[in-house]
Write a structure and sequence with these properties.
Order of helices and strands: HHEEEEEEEEEEEEEE
Helix content: under 10%
Largest sheet: 8 strands, antiparallel, barrel
CATH class: Mainly Beta
Strand content: over 45%
Distance between the termini: 46 Å
Strand order of the largest sheet: 1-4-5-6-7-10-11-14
CATH architecture: Beta Barrel
Number of domains: 1
Shape: elongated
């Protein structure tokens, strides 16, 4: 229930922020901005347990969970005026997955575990509002919407002589963004950039029961260029 309220609240904030474009744009010299980032992803999801049917093995509960990963991101922004920026964002990274076969309440023995990474990317469009564009530290808040796409992930259960492959559906995503841009010199084009994003998206198995509210927090550090 709390998660549904949070999602609805963030969606309302997103609509309001993107809708502000129509009332805040004023004629000004436009600037292009490119930001390249190293990113770290922290999924906020819980694990998902389900009773699985694996050919030749007894039906038993399995567990799928995910942990942090890393990758890179690229933002291309266009400033409509000193305070309002539209941007297109791409993030390409991975997360660490763990698959456990043999989940039984209160028992640790007889479990078979493997780890692997799943690659994913997201392409999003959004808007940033710059609160201090003339200051040494340019602080901004933003919102975005886009799509989230995952590769399949494979787990090798050597003790059972089985390989488990799980594919995922593409998902809609949206979220909020906060960051700073700090130029290296007073009027120079190069700047240091840092941001944190909270994204709402699900990890849903293609044709299967597993569905995890991934909702990652994404931190990034990088270099930007204005022209």
């Amino acid at each position: 229930m709390k998660n549904q309220i949070l999602r609805r609240t963030l969606l309302i904030v997103l609509v309001l922020m993107l809708g502000a474009i129509g009332v805040t744009v004023s004629p000004a010299e436009a600037d292009w901005i490119i930001r390249g980032n190293y990113v770290v992803t922290w999924p906020s999801s819980d694990s998902y347990q389900t009773q699985s049917v694996i050919e030749g093995l007894p039906d038993i509960f399995t567990e799928l969970s995910f942990d942090k990963g890393q990758g890179f991101g690229l933002d291309i922004g266009y400033k409509l005026n000193p305070k309002l920026e539209l941007f297109l964002m791409g993030i390409f990274t991975d997360i660490e997955g763990t698959f456990v076969y043999g989940i039984e309440p209160g028992e640790e023995s007889g479990r078979v575990t493997d780890n692997n990474t799943v690659d994913w990317y997201t392409i999003d469009f959004g808007a940033n509002y710059h609160f201090t564009p003339e200051s040494r530290v340019d602080f901004y808040l933003g919102a975005f919407v886009g799509v989230f796409s995952y590769d399949s992930i494979k787990f090798n259960l050597t003790e059972l002589e089985r390989e488990i492959s799980i594919s995922f559906d593409d998902q809609f995503s949206y979220g909020l963004n906060a960051g700073i841009d700090v130029p290296f010199t007073a009027d120079g084009p190069l700047f240091f950039t840092a941001s944190v994003k909270y994204m709402l998206t699900d990890l849903k198995e293609e044709g299967g029961p597993r569905e995890i509210a991934l909702d990652p927090i994404i931190g990034s550090l990088g270099i930007g260029f204005k022209f």
